[in-house]
Fold this sequence. Notes:
Layout: E1 14-17, H1 23-34, E2 38-43, H2 47-59, E3 64-68, H3 74-88, E4 91-96, H4 110-126, E5 130-141, H5 142-145, H6 157-171, H7 174-179, E6 183-189, H8 196-204, H9 208-216, H10 222-232, E7 242-245
Parallel strand pairs: 1-2, 1-4, 2-3, 4-5, 5-6, 6-7
Helix pairs in contact: 1-10, 3-4, 4-6
Amino acid sequence: xxxxxxxxxxxxxxxxxxxxxxxxxxxxxxxxxxxxxxxxxxxxxxxxxxxxxxxxxxxxxxxxxxxxxxxxxxxxxxxxxxxxxxxxxxxxxxxxxxxxxxxxxxxxxxxxxxxxxxxxxxxxxxxxxxxxxxxxxxxxxxxxxxxxxxxxxxxxxxxxxxxxxxxxxxxxxxxxxxxxxxxxxxxxxxxxxxxxxxxxxxxxxxxxxxxxxxxxxxxxxxxxxxxxxxxxxxxxxxxxxxxxxxxxxxxxxxx
Length: 255
């Protein structure tokens, strides 16, 4: 994995990436640690993986705090933030990466509770820890970001609609964040090779990944997309608060 951010450029900064025990979240957290940031590794049920990642970060000379939390449980979120306050004293970067909704046996409203309500809950709990110059990044997909204008696979619709609802709810907070001096960017990516979601979609809809790859020309892999998420936390906030990653020609924008 190559160095994406300037070495030492995040020294003294503190970052929390939700859902960072694996996948895009883990690689995003790794880029922050490589740049010198202290990092909170958050997981729902992958404690050994999170601990291993934290050990890797500590070898880089940064602090790493492992925090398990059920993001749909406000008490669990508050407990995580209390630990962050105690250990790090505050937060400079919050990446809202964790999402889901394709899991079975989680209840029919689970996608909305995780992809909208939990995102607001995490941000709300983090705000007292964040000062002027801090950054919030929300990670989503083109299939969700453009769901109002471009149909997606039936299997993904509940996730896409709930993630777009989460994005809309967060965007409504932009004026409040700006008043606090906190930047906000949505990072939207195409299907990502090697993610749990892509694997599940391909299982439910065989050939879906290949078809999208052919249409787009290429798809980003996990570490490539994570690099864009990490850069979004340090680059200037785009005028429309949106960083589109990968091909968007087949997605219709809202007029």
